[in-house]
Specification:
15% helix, 13 strands, 6 helices, alpha+beta, six-stranded antiparallel sheet, seven-stranded antiparallel sheet, binds zinc ion
Length: 287
């Protein structure tokens, strides 16, 4: 955005600007989330596993369809970069852009993390968020965005940074490689734009630029998700720590994140089945 327009405004500029916006997608037309059922299941949860994600590093973990996982702040304010893959098909992975188009810039309870084409189905549904109270601050900031990408060594080099090997992109690449038995060169292209767990971000209203500010997360807070399909997940404890100042370096204070895997009483999910991939016929109008 520039302050001086490149061309003079037309005579009807105000009228054009006054046109009311409409939602791009009627997301409510998508199959409904049964939050009542998920709440009944939540009431029966028992922890089956937990995984510590070390600071400035990532860990991959598996969550079977029908189980829940919590990403928990444990020692200090820390944001996490989350990737999701279908456990049996790493080509099916989280599609940040379409999730943003369907649910908005930041995810709330009941919102879903959607997979890319040709699958486009819910991979996980957010079932609880102890930062739900934060809402939107006076700067337009909110938590758990799907507008960021993930910190990476390429952009860091582009902007004059020293080589730094513990950006979320590299952390996720190493974690996926180890979990899936892939060399780094095969794992890297499967790493994708993330759900920025706990990160507080927005777009500056004057300039449109992406901003971050200190995460409001504190030890004990958690984001909880329901696995809609069998998942392989990767979580990086971002080298930005609470992302109040910098990332892509060792400057910020960083803390571990804890992942808890929780199983409900199967009776609570009676009648539920994992969502199917899109039924589009893949013809794309050809032939
Ligand atoms: Zn990061």
């Amino acid at each position: 955005m520039t302050s001086e327009p490149l061309t003079p405004a037309p005579a009807d500029a105000d009228a054009r600007r006054a046109v009311r916006p409409v939602p791009v997608y009627a997301a409510e037309a998508a199959p409904k989330v049964d939050l009542a059922m998920l709440d009944r299941a939540r009431a029966t949860l028992a922890k089956v596993d937990e995984i510590v994600v070390p600071p400035r590093d990532a860990t991959a973990f598996r969550v079977p369809a029908g189980q829940f996982f919590r990403i928990r702040s444990v020692e200090g304010p820390q944001v996490g970069d989350l990737n999701l893959w279908a456990a049996d098909n790493l080509d099916e992975r989280f599609y940040s852009g379409k999730t943003r188009a369907l649910h908005g810039t930041h995810l709330d309870r009941g919102d879903r993390m959607w997979s890319g084409f040709p699958y486009l189905r819910p991979m996980a549904t957010i079932t609880w968020d102890t930062l739900d109270w934060y809402g939107q601050d006076d700067f337009g900031g909110a938590v758990h965005d799907v507008i960021g990408t993930r910190c990476d060594p390429y952009t860091n080099r582009l902007l004059g940074g020293d080589p730094y090997h513990h950006c979320c992109h590299s952390n996720l690449t190493r974690a996926l490689g180890a979990a899936a038995g892939l060399p780094l060169g095969s794992a890297e292209p499967l790493v994708h734009d993330v759900l920025n767990v706990f990160m507080c971000t927005g777009f500056d209203r004057a300039t449109g630029r992406y901003f971050m500010k200190a995460s409001p997360v504190r030890p004990g807070d958690y984001l909880e998700l329901f696995a809609e399909i069998d998942l392989l997940a990767g979580l990086s404890a971002c080298p930005g720590g609470d992302c109040s100042a910098s990332h892509s370096s060792d400057a910020a204070a960083c803390y571990p994140l804890l992942v808890e895997i929780l199983a409900p009483d199967p009776k609570a999910l009676e009648g539920w089945t994992p969502p199917r991939a899109s039924d589009y016929d893949l013809s794309h109008g050809a032939g």
